Amino acid sequence: MTSTITPATSATPATVGSAATTARRGGDLRILVHQIRYEQLTFWRNPQAMIFTFIFPLAFMTIVGAVFRGGTSSEFFYGHTGLQYYTATIAALSVLGACYGQLAIALAMRRQTGVLKRVHATPLPAWIYFAGLLAHCVLVSVIEVALIVGVGAAYRVPMPVSWGVLAVTLVLGAASFCALGAGVSALVRNPEAAPAVVQFVQLPLLFLSGTYFPIHSSLLTHVGDVLPVKPFNDAILAAFTTNAHLKWTEQGVLLAWGVAGAIVAVLRFRWDPRPE
After folding, report:
1. Contacts of 52 (CB under 8 A, 6+ apart)
2. Are the C-beta atoms of residues 70 and 83 closer than 8 Å to each other?
3. Which residue among 151, 210, 240, 266 is least crowded, i.e. fewest CB within 10 A of its CB?
4. CA trace torsion 60, 53, 132, 134 (10° rounding)
């Protein structure tokens, strides 16, 4: 009797390497999702931080709505109603606060209290840690912008004409401001100074960029155009106009500032607390 023997199939090095790469990518994705969930839980379980993150832009929007309700388009607001203009700029302000201000202060505090040092000592890859922070800030920003647009709608501000333009601008702006926040946090020497440093940078940008009132000085307009906040304001405002489209110049300025912030963060970032 003749028996047939089927030869065993052996895995090639290429097959093994491909499987290992796929498994590693799947593991990284699970860790990233876990890190995003951790940042979200940390935020939502801190009622004071959560409430004050949302209360200022929403209160500001409510007051502005009461002041400018029923207004008409004017040249002072670049052809928009006052409420439409402030819906865009307050939305931009909320993203700036969540992604730049809070992130810079949080990283400075985590460094000095030893949290970053302990994180760095774990197997968690650095890119996953920062990607989790970025995704968390983007999620908070999306919620804030949705609430502000909702308050505006309650005052009969038209909804954005292009949600796609708004989404692209929001994600790019959030990423750029996160990079700037990480860069500024690398320059802060102690957590007590972090709020002052953040406000020292942020407040002049807000006034120069027309966040609180339109700027009609050609000189200040040109200065604001090369800084990160005004292009972000203009790009968000574009989503509310009838000819909504991506403002590539403004998006390019945001991207350039984001890259600059990322470079500073990479070159100057410290995991260990600075000596007192």
Report:
1. none
2. no
3. 266
4. 30
